[in-house]
Each structure stands twice: as structure tokens, then as C-alpha cells.
Amino acid sequence: MEYRRLGHSGLKVSALSFGGATFGGGGDFFKEWGNQQVDEARHLLGICADAGVNLVDVANIYSHGLAEEVLGKALQGQRQNWLISTKATFPMGDGPNDMGSSRHHLIAQCDASLKRLGTDYIDIYHMHGFDATTPIDETLDALNTLVHAGKVRYIACSNFSGWHLMKSLAVSERYGWARYVAHQVYYSLVGREYEWELMPLGVAENVGALIWSPLGWGRLTGKIRRGQPLPETSRLHKTADYGPPVEDEYLYRLVDEMDEVAKETDKSIPQIALNWLLQRPTVASVIVGARNEEQLKQNLGSVGWNLTAEQVEKLDRASELTPVYPYWHQRQFAERNPPAVRSYRESGQIV
Fold first, then answer.
1. Residue 130 pLDDT exceeds 70
2. Which of 7, 19, 91, 175 could crosslink 99 through cysteines, CB 3.0-4.6 Å?
């Protein structure tokens, strides 16, 4: 397993991390992801540990706290061997202060997460989404307080826009507070919008990317193909509307190209999708989930080898989409605004 420094920090995370959203199985939405209880969670985490994975990611909202509870029990006696990432911001109750990134909500939710996880510190604490109703300085002051209290070691954000993240970094710099070292983002071969603004920002400000849903909301499993129905077991049956939209023909053309690369590499479609991500700028860790041991072992097989530069470029071309404004306009002047991926390649920092 490769270990990568997490953004502007000294923390090293495994290139693959394990996503615990499948733990607990509370509610219809999360049951579609998985319903793993303590014994199965402990087994899967053991497989991850044997492969060198050192980071597990959950959130307070996952199965309304059950995922954190399952993880805490599964890690009893081995907490010191793991980095735990969890999140707050989304609603955890019906009260007017039971959501958001206010000082009131964050301190209460951090304490609740610590209790469910059975630990006295969180390694990486994410703002699960941006709260435009709370002053940014209030949010960051509260997070800085949690860091100095020893309850949180590093802070991060998730699903922010470029200006959300940049303004937050500026506020942290102004007051000398803890700053976001990572941004947990959606990024995949069928969802490359991250490259338009957030990736260049991550390069410039040294913010590491933790990738969620790297298989495009279940579309890059290799089981979704032209002329075939959805597989019987797929989150897309009930959760497709919650995820990113993808046109069918675009997906089918991409999978056709991935099939050719699969033959050349003797790897699976998911492994190719994950390995492509691991070669992108700013990517610190790709979060993989699994319904079962077989899926997990397949995902873990995406490290220890690399697609060739020619194969990466082939997949780049097959998955490219015309960006929205102002990015399509900026790309007409690539000598002044080269894409972050191209800039990294030309600098020799990635193949």
C-alpha cells in the first residue's frame, strides 16, 4: 500500500481508504448501500488492515449514527491502528439547531460522534457540506476550539464550491486557526467536474482530495452495459435520483473503451476506474466501500500497478465533457489557464 501526505499536514493516509457508509443499514436509503453489523464490519476492516489501509470514513448522518456505533464497536482494541474520519452538518434532529455548522451544533455533534465511536478523538473531522447561514469565522473558530481541546486532530470539508473553500482558507490564515487540509469530493471517470476549479485550487493551496463514490454512484462496476438491464443488486434502483446524472450513451461509450484497457491490463472495470483516480493530481486517498468480501478484495486490487500514460489518455478522451462557463472560455486560452492535470503532466509530477 502506498501512503500519501494529506494536503497541508504531516498526516499520511493510505492511497485507498475504507468507506463505512454500509455499516448499520438504518433507513431505506442506507440499506440500499449495505447493512453490515459489527461482526461483518470487523471482518472487512481486518481485510483492509492486512492490505495496509489505515483510514476509515463515516459520518454522523450515515444510518443516523448507526454507522459510527458499528465502527466504534468493530474497532474495539485496535483504535490506535486506525485513522477515523467522520462528518457533521446535515440534520440530526427536528430542532432548529439540529443541523448546520454553527458552534452550537458542531460542538454537540462532535461530542455525540465521540461517544458513538467509543473514542476520545477524531483524526479528520469534515464539514459534510457548506452552511451559508452560519458565518464562516464562527464555524472555523468552533473547529479550532475542538482541535485545541484535543477532540479533533485535523479538519476538512466536503462538497464545497471553490469560493466556499478559498474563503474558509483565507479566514483560517487571517486568524491563525486550524485550516482545512482536505476536501472530500465526488470525482470519477463519469464525473470530472472536480477538475474544473476544485482541483486547481487544491494544487495551489495544498488541499488533499479524499474521493467519494469513485465508481460513479455504482455505474462503473462493469455490470451496466448497453442493451442490458440494471443488475438485480444495485443502489441505482432506488438511489439514482440522489446521485450525479449520467447520460446512458456516454456511459456505454466509456465502458467500451474501458473494456479495451481491461483486456490490455488483465484488470477489472472497477480496478481501472480506481487506478485512474489514483494517478490524478491532489488525490490523497480514494474511499472504497464494499457490500461483501469479494467486492472489497477486488477494490483493493487497484493498487500496486499503474495504467500506462497512453491508457490514461485514452480514458481521459473517452470521459471528457465540455465544461460549463467560465471554464470552457478559459480553456480557449490554455497557455494562461492550462488544466491542472495537464500542468502536472508537463511538470513531470505525474505520468
1. yes
2. 91
